[in-house]
Design brief:
The chain is an alpha/beta fold. It folds into three domains: 178 residues, no CATH class; 223 residues, Aspartate Aminotransferase, domain 2, CATH 3.40.640; 134 residues, Alpha-Beta Complex (Aspartate Aminotransferase, domain 1), CATH 3.90.1150.10. It contains 26 helices and 17 strands. Strands 6-12-11-10-9-7-8 form a seven-stranded mixed sheet, with helices on both faces.
Length: 613
């Protein structure tokens, strides 16, 4: 078995709109974080909230050439509200993050601004020949935040934390319309001054500002390169689309309704016959209680916004979470308490925090936790958290991404459940998505629904909805196989005298996980595990470099995917992360659906590659 992909290429290989990128050696990951040209210059893909996709870079170049002043950077968003929140974030954070190391200039009023760009076909008949053009009833409007170039890192933070940037598929559609319009203008007025001043000729070649080594490209050249790239690598995908595995984008609204029913467990009779039914354990739950968002972090962000609007106040982050969850709680609103161990005395400290704020009439707005957590695979005692939340009228928000609702029931305990649909729900690693589910049986349900109404926007692009629906049809059938494979790999690793610790829900806070694990025969412990070795970082590097699977960011894929998680997620704060048990030598592994005997042989070979003490 050897599924490794060359450095910088899409993961999976030759996948259009892949959400991961190959970083096959330990040093590749370190050099990526250091900004080494040998890595950055080879990257054609990346996790979309961290690496701005090539189509988005090209679209930014197009918009900048029309609207930007010299020395301005830009960031594009799918709605005016997203863009306006980005502007507010920049004005709020510029003075807070200003330091000797980060010398952000303080923007003057109006210096950070929003412009709109409309993607509307000039030739309506030509647009109607395109599947999406037949679907859309109105032009696509995107919103561009223009700002001084030195403030761009703050705009990038907002993009990364909130997950509200535009998708690569939407960017590609806007570029397609720009290209079609230019071709039409050239055909109709080939010698007119307007054609001589076309978008391509107006391009000044300025860099997009999204990446250290990304140079400026004209819209024509960028879209031509993308079109050529797609033709070469997606022949198989085009074939499957022609034969109907993907629905036409005109059915996107119906696909979103299917996704909401699927997540709520309220499926059609035909879907139940196919074995796709899942009982969410909550009476009265309907698809109306499910909100689809563009990314998993969007789910956390919109839930946080709704709670801020509903009651304000600080939040508590219980347990060590995925990095951007904590950033959202800390940077948007009045801040958060961080109880990063999520065990033992942290429960007592949580109780003290809640009591102290209740007495000062400054109540805590919510407790956020992950079950299990990423990357330590700890499971909080949801019964205890629920009791504390009820006692102090605090919302309990649980992220079920790692466990997934195929394995665990956290909705019975929570007011709100958030999840990244990018991961195991999709499995194919080619589309982003997220969900928010409200528990209709909790006392905060009505005010939460009202608060969601004021902040929620349906920003899932039609093509992304179509792919996500297609990918998730067999979600409930895939998870048991992943469970079995992951448990076998975890047990193999535990038997090795070269392994210091395997973090997996069966072995980590096991009693807490048992309380939320579904009682069905197919439920298990999920596909994610983390491992540390007796020999420290040198042993981790030997294991990682010799592990013959795909290696890059993300998880929940149908194929096995590994990463030196702490290096990628906490490179600038390694000492801080280590205080909570998230060590720099930790290797996180997401197990896939490969034949088990091949998986075990692959892991044994990687273990054998670690030098004996």
């Amino acid at each position: 078995m050897n599924s490794q992909v060359p450095l910088g290429e899409c993961v999976p290989a030759s996948t259009r709109y892949a959400v991961s990128v190959s970083l096959p050696t330990w040093q590749d990951n370190v050099d990526y974080e250091l900004g080494a040209p040998r890595v950055l210059e080879r990257m054609v893909s990346g996790y979309p909230r961290f690496f701005i996709a090539k189509p988005v870079q090209a679209l930014v170049t197009l918009v900048k050439d029309r609207f930007a002043l010299p020395n301005e950077a830009a960031m594009v968003f799918p709605s005016l509200a997203c863009a306006q929140r980005c502007v507010a974030f920049i004005y709020d954070q510029a003075p807070k993050q200003h330091s000797a190391e980060l010398a952000y200039g303080l923007p003057a009023p109006g210096q950070v601004r929003v412009v709109q760009y409309v993607a509307e076909p000039v030739n309506k008949k030509a647009a109607a020949l395109d599947a999406i053009g037949r679907t859309l009833e109105s032009p696509i409007t995107i919103y561009c935040v223009l700002l001084p170039a030195d403030l761009f890192p703050l705009a990038k933070q907002y993009w990364q934390h909130t997950g509200n940037g535009i998708s690569a598929r939407l960017a590609d559609y806007c570029l397609h319309i720009a290209r079609v319009n230019e071709e039409y203008e050239q055909e109709v007025r080939p010698y007119s001054p307007a054609s001589r001043g076309s978008a391509a000729q107006r391009s000044k070649g300025r860099g997009s500002g999204y990446h250290r080594k990304t140079g400026g490209v004209s819209p024509n050249r960028a879209t031509d390169e993308i079109q050529s790239h797609e033709t070469g690598i997606e022949a198989d995908a085009y074939m499957e689309e022609r034969f109907g595995r993907n629905c036409d984008p005109k059915h996107a609204a119906e696909m979103k309704a299917v996704l909401r029913r699927r997540i709520a467990g309220a499926l059609s009779e035909e879907e139940q016959k196919q074995g796709a039914q899942v009982e969410r354990g909550v009476t009265g739950l309907t698809s109306d209680d499910v909100y689809l968002v563009a990314t998993g972090m969007s789910a956390v962000y919109y839930t946080h916004l709704a709670l801020l609007g509903m009651r304000g106040g600080k939040s508590v982050c219980f347990g060590f979470p995925y990095t951007d969850t904590l950033k959202i709680l800390e940077k948007f609103g009045p801040g958060a308490y961080f109880l990063g161990h999520g065990e033992d005395s942290d429960y007592d400290e949580l109780e003290r925090i809640l009591e102290r704020h209740a007495k000062s009439q400054d109540p805590i707005q919510a407790i956020f936790t992950e079950c299990p957590s990423n990357p330590l695979l700890k499971t909080a005692d949801l019964s205890r958290l629920r009791d504390l939340a009820d006692l102090h009228s605090v919302a309990l928000v649980v992220d079920e991404t790692i466990g997934s609702f195929a394995n665990v029931d956290v909705l019975s305990w929570a007011d709100v459940v958030v999840s990244s649909l990018t991961k195991v729900f999709s499995g194919d690693s080619n589309v982003m998505g997220g969900s928010i589910v409200l528990n209709p049986n909790r006392s905060l349900y009505s005010p939460l629904r009202a608060a969601m109404t004021t902040v929620f926007e349906d920003l899932m692009w039609c093509e992304d909805a179509v792919f996500l629906e297609r990918n998730s049809r067999d979600f409930m059938k895939r998870v048991p196989g992943i469970n079995r494979n992951a448990l076998a790999v975890a047990e193999l690793l535990r038997t090795s005298n070269k392994v210091a610790q395997v973090r997996y829900p069966k072995f980590t806070t096991a009693d807490n996980y048992a309380r939320i694990m579904r009682s069905t025969s197919e439920a298990g412990y999920g596909g994610l595990l983390s491992v540390e070795f007796v020999g420290g970082e040198s042993a981790s590097q030997a294991f990682y470099d010799n592990l013959a699977c795909c290696k890059g960011p993300s998880l929940g894929t149908n194929f096995t995917l590994a990463s030196p998680y702490t290096i990628l997620a906490h490179f600038t704060e390694l000492e801080w992360a280590a205080k909570y048990g998230v060590h720099a030598d930790l290797v996180r592994i997401s197990i896939g659906l490969e034949p088990l005997d091949e998986l075990l042989a692959m892991f044994q070979a990687a273990l054998d590659a670690i030098p004996s003490a």
